[in-house]
Specification:
The protein is an alpha+beta fold. It contains 9 helices and 5 strands; from the N terminus they run ααααββαβαββααα.
């Protein structure tokens, strides 16, 4: 016999499985958090870095494709496309001097690099010494120091819209050669060597305007023609206006404006003279003959008659209106 109070056994089986899909919003939040943490640590690293590292990082973001030996160069960035003028020529000068001081090999040669502002533009002169600093002695071949310096200058000047002018100079010591090679050829060849290296380092072909060789005709030390400092090359960043620096151009503009003002004043002063001149021919015509007198008198009377007719036209009485007419029709009214 079965027991009536016995309950059935219920077995519950739970199926194991992965939870439902919750979306990927957490991934976006996590990525933002990681990015913010990375930026924070970069800022903390830069704050504790040396000045050289800071300049290199800043130079990279200003000029990622820099040809400088450092990670980046301390250049003007987007402002390099602005032509050199009165406002930023001092900035470019300081920038080049700063770049020279930052390189230990060139810092020792600061006295042999002169940067001056001239009517032609910003002049950068590389002055030789007795042993030969930038070129090999008696040759147009650049030394390692000259190549390094010109490479640095090319990085600073290649993005400028200003054109560049190169000059070569020598001292008065005659060049000893049996094939007719003189200081003229040497000065021109040295300037051309500098031009070729600048173009190899990024300066455009159209940016070079002229290459000059002066031999010993423009001595730096005129009292001592054999002084080794007379041997030099000059790189000139020309003004955009070939006539001269912006100061001269502004002065020319002011003089032109002043000349225009004086011309206008002179024209105003000549107007009374022209009126007197107009009356002079009339007097001369009166003496030509009696045939010209009737024409002159008729011309003179015509304006007078026209002038006399104007007041007569004004004196005409106005026409009576409708009310005036009705009043005149009433009995006992007096006619005016």
């Amino acid at each position: 016999m079965s027991e009536p109070n016995k309950r059935p056994i219920i077995v519950i089986k739970k199926k194991g499985g992965h939870g439902g899909h919750h979306g990927g919003a957490w991934k976006v939040a996590y990525a933002d958090f990681v990015t913010a943490m990375m930026a924070l640590f970069i800022v903390l690293w830069l704050l504790n870095s040396s000045v050289k590292v800071k300049k290199a990082v800043a130079g990279y973001f200003n000029d990622p494709k820099s040809s400088s030996k450092e990670t980046g160069s301390d250049k003007l960035g987007d402002d390099d496309s602005i032509p050199v003028d009165k406002k930023n020529v001092e900035k470019l000068k300081e920038q080049i001097q700063k770049a020279i001081k930052e390189q230990k090999d060139l810092e020792k040669l600061a006295k042999q690099i002169e940067i001056t502002i001239t009517p032609e533009g910003l002049r950068i002169e590389l002055i030789e010494d007795k042993k030969g600093t930038f070129f090999e002695s008696g040759s147009a071949k650049l030394s390692s120091t000259g190549q390094e310096l010109l490479g640095m200058l090319a990085g600073q000047l290649k993005t400028l819209p200003n054109r560049l002018l190169l000059e070569g100079h020598t001292d008065a010591q005659p060049y000893s050669s049996d094939n007719g090679y003189t200081n003229w050829e040497l000065s021109a060849d040295r300037a051309n060597s500098a031009r070729r290296l600048l173009q190899q380092d990024g300066v455009g072909t159209g940016q070079i305007s002229q290459v000059r060789g002066f031999a010993d005709q423009m001595l730096r030390v005129k009292n001592d023609p054999l002084d080794p400092t007379n041997r030099r090359i000059s790189l000139i960043v020309q003004w955009v206006q070939a006539t001269g620096p912006p100061e001269a151009a502004s002065k020319e503009g002011e003089t032109k404006e002043g000349a225009k003002a004086e011309a206008s004043k002179a024209g105003d002063a000549r107007q009374p003279e022209s009126k007197a001149g107009d009356s002079a021919p009339a007097k001369s015509e009166e003496g030509k003959g009696e045939a010209a007198k009737p024409a002159a008198t008729s011309a003179a009377t015509t304006p007078a008659s026209a002038a006399a007719g104007k007041p007569a036209a004004r004196a005409v009485a106005p026409k009576p209106g409708l009310m005036d007419r009705l009043k005149g029709m009433l009995p006992g009214s007096k006619k005016k």
